[in-house]
Design goal:
Helices cover 62% and strands 0% of the residues. With 357 residues, the protein is mostly helical. Helix 13 (199-210) packs antiparallel against helix 17 (275-284). The longest helix is centred in the first third of the chain and has 37 residues, at 23-59. The N and C termini lie far apart (51 Å).
Length: 357
Amino acid sequence: MSNENNYEYTEIVSSMLESCDDLMNLDEIISNLYEQKSRWEKKSKEVFDDLLKGQLLKKAKYSKTSLAAVIGCSRPTLDSWLKGIIPSRENMIRIGLVAGYDLNQINELLTKYGFYQELYPKILSDCVCLFVINTYNEKRCEQYRRILGELEKSITDNSPEEVEIDTEYFGAMVSDIEAEVELVKFISENIGTFKNTYHRLYAYVHALFYGAEDSEKSGLFGIDGMYANSPIYGIADEQKWSASLKRAVSEIQNRKWIPTREKIISLGIHLNMYRVDIDEMLRRAHMKELYAKNVFEALIIFITESADLEGLYDPDEDGEVSQYALLNYAYDILNKYRKYPEIERFFNEITRVDEEE
């Protein structure tokens, strides 16, 4: 197997990163991943060119203005997609609906070309999308936007505490809904499930904030749970967290956070988490674990694995774990790769903090 072919296999790339102990070797890995990413982005752009320009603007005879109106985006946003910018997950779903895609096609669009998670029935918007795909043959995006908008305005939480429902079974129940009135009733009866889509993630992160048993493996709290009684906002201020990351903490505490992948990773770095902790947060957000073939996430894998080997998670002679060690180490490594756009973008989330003498 050639070295170039090795980069086609996620497990091999992950193993390379785990065993990498030299920055020159890391340079080679990241360079090869970026070349592969560039080739894949070219393919993705071709797919969206065909979808937007070929299928929708040309064959379906939308104008740019009318297509933007149907999708529910601005004309400049549409123009950015036509220039190669990948749409958000929500907009990608809407584009798929306008194109008349079925469930498998939308999931492929999300996972293969957008690197997003596939449709998940316990997310309210995804549930509506699944209903629309199963029910309507025309004007799917308009129906999706209308139904979702009406539900978000009218649904109130008068339901009892959520009863855990198997996701596959829940999805089957959604598939059986044939009329809009049934959908509204179903969502009303299960609003607790929709509102608690991320409850396992909330519980896990809350435990990390306050040092509960669920966080015993987290470097932030060390062996003795050194920050168990420390207000998370104190750490946020000392580490100079971004306003959006502080807002995420508040929303987690109020069970209102809609997590994004990058924000979960940012939270993991700021809270001194091991790779296993970050992967666990991603799983609880119904996302895949850190992806070794993504340039940014490959660096996060290297940072967390090498930080563990360097002992940055370990207590010092006083039994304390530095709350800055992983953050500063991540900053120094990522700073070397700021030429890559996705790394530069992450620098809005991270600040190097000088430790007090």
